[in-house]
Structure formats: C-alpha cells, structure tokens
Task: inverse folding
C-alpha cells in the first residue's frame, strides 16, 4: 500500500526549519493543498507564521520532473527580479532526513483561478487585463539576464530543442499505456522539422498558465507570485509561450479533471496571446508551427503521465486516470501543425 500523501511529518519539518535558523513559535500543523498530478503541496503553520512545503509525488515519478530542488533554486534566484515569486526559505535535498526532498517557501495569501466557475465573478475586461498581465510577466521572465541571477548553469541551451524532443519521447515510452501511431508519427515530424540554434535563450518556466500563479484576491490583474517551477530550465523561451497557448485547448479539462479556467472561451485565444507576447518582447516567433507541435506532444505526454501515476496510487482524486483520454486529440493537433515537415 502506498503512503498517504495527505500525511506530512510536521515534527520533522519543524526540526529541519529550526536547523536552518527559521524561528518556529509552536507545534506545526500541515494541510495538503494539492497533489497527485504534480509535486505535493502542503500549507504548514505554527499559528503565527505560514509556509508552503513541496515534495515529489509518492510514486510514479517521471525522469527530470518533480524536481523540488530545481524549483526552489529558481525561486531563490528570481527573488529580486521583475518576476513575482514566493520567498525562498529552505531546501532539504537529502531524502533520508524527511523521507523525500523538501522545498520550503513563504506563504503568499493570493487566490488561484482554477475553474471556469470562478471566472464568473469577473468582467470580460478584468479577464483580458489579467491575461495581459500574465503575458507581461512571462515576457519579463524571458528577458531576465540568466548570468546576472546566477542560473547560467541551470540548463544547456545548445541542442535544447533536440533534447526536448528526445526527453518527451523517452517519457512517452515510459508512461504510455498503449502504442499510438500518431505519437510515433509526431515524434518523427518533430525530428524532421527541428529548427537551428534558438534565437531567444532565457529562463523557461515550463508550465506557465493562470492556475500556476497566485492572484490578488481583490484585483485579478495583479499577479502576486508565479509558482510551480519544477520544470524550469534555461533554454529556448519560445517553448514556454507555445505551451501557454496550447494549454488553452479544451483537452486541458480532461488533464486537470475539471472545467479549467485556462480553457475558458472568455479568455483571449492562443493566437492573441502569442501576438501580445511577441509585441511585448519585440520579437518574431520563428518556426512557430514546430513549437506548437512540440507543445502538443509535451502536453500529451503529461496527460499520459498523470494517468500513469494514478494507476499507481499517486493521484489525489479518481479523475486523474482519465487524463489519457486527451492524448489522441493533442497528438492529432500536433500533427496538423507539422503537416508539411
């Protein structure tokens, strides 16, 4: 039987925090905020202070994902940048100490817009302005000087796209429940259409959309923090904006297991988001069909991985196993983007 993901060793967390010089005033309590599809997230409090603790899923990990050390280091590096992030508090990389690597950040009292029902409280203008702010922050992230914030060793820009294609194909072979011809065809087309050296290198979030940000509870046009940096790297930033656009598809509902806010038709579409981003950064989105195809392939693998982990008891809810139903449509969309490789 797999361990219960809702249970966190709060006494161990307290000992660790105190060993790092963090003042804890009383016994800790912890509550699972989210888990199953990504790293497990807990809100921990001593009654006077609140922290967020992140750890990998209990089982069904895919290689290179669920890296809490990576996301903590990126969060720390961006502390004084134009990109809003939580306060980086402490990192425990040794699994033997608490049973798994743990990353601790400050608690940000913002709201997360996850569902379409939540959008009903806002006007179309507010939603458009919110998306415009999300685009601005992503453009600002991609404009950060990687060396200046100390992240130049985080990734390897040379050969980045080729490695991405190999990575997601390898992960596909590890989490697939059946062979799909479209997956093989899309992989082949991506290899055939690989662009040359990327024109735009920077910090890549890897999973950027509205529900991976914390918004002001009174004004959703204010982003208080960008979170979920577990897939962050230094590489081709166009992969970030492409995935942000591809996430706008209805298949996101199946992947997340509910009517996703980011899939709402009340928000600007992928084309409008891409155009706004290009204007903000003053760049051309070269080889755009390739990037959209790669993003669809990546999202298909993510969906399959969610189902894979669910079958192994690592999901927070029963709907997670249904995520793989999104895979065929995502693969087909990717193929359409590269119909003339």
Result:
């Amino acid at each position: 039987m797999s361990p219960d993901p809702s249970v966190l060793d709060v006494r161990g967390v307290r000992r660790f925090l105190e060993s790092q010089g963090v003042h804890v005033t009383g016994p800790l309590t912890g509550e699972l905020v989210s888990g199953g599809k990504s790293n497990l997230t807990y809100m921990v409090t001593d009654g006077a202070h609140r922290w967020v603790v992140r750890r990998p899923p209990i089982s069904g990990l895919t290689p290179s994902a669920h890296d809490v050390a990576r996301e903590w280091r990126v969060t720390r590096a961006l502390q004084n940048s134009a990109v809003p992030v939580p306060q980086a508090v402490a990192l425990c990389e040794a699994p033997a100490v608490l049973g798994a690597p743990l990353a601790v950040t400050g608690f940000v009292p913002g709201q997360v817009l996850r569902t379409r029902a939540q959008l009903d409280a806002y006007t179309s203008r507010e939603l458009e302005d919110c998306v415009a702010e999300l685009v601005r922050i992503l453009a600002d992230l991609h404009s950060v000087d990687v060396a200046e914030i100390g992240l130049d060793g985080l990734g390897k820009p040379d050969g980045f796209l080729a490695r991405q294609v190999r990575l997601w194909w390898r992960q596909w072979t590890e989490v697939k429940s059946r062979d799909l011809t479209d997956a093989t065809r899309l992989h082949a087309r991506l290899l055939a259409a690989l662009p040359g050296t990327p024109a735009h290198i920077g910090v890549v979030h890897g999973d950027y959309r509205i529900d991976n940000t914390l918004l002001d509870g009174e004004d959703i046009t204010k982003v208080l923090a960008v979170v979920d940096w577990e897939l962050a790297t230094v590489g081709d930033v166009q992969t970030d904006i492409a995935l942000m656009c591809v996430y706008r598809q209805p298949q996101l509902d199946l992947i997340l297991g509910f009517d996703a806010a980011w899939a709402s038709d009340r928000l600007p579409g992928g084309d409008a988001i891409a155009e706004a981003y290009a204007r903000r950064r003053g760049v051309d989105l070269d080889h755009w069909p390739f990037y959209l195809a790669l993003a669809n392939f990546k999202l298909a693998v993510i969906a399959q991985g969610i189902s894979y982990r669910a079958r192994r008891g690592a999901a927070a809810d029963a709907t997670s196993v249904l995520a793989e139903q999104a895979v065929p449509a995502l693969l087909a969309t990717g193929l359409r983007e590269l119909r003339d490789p």
The two ends are 47 Å apart (CA to CA).
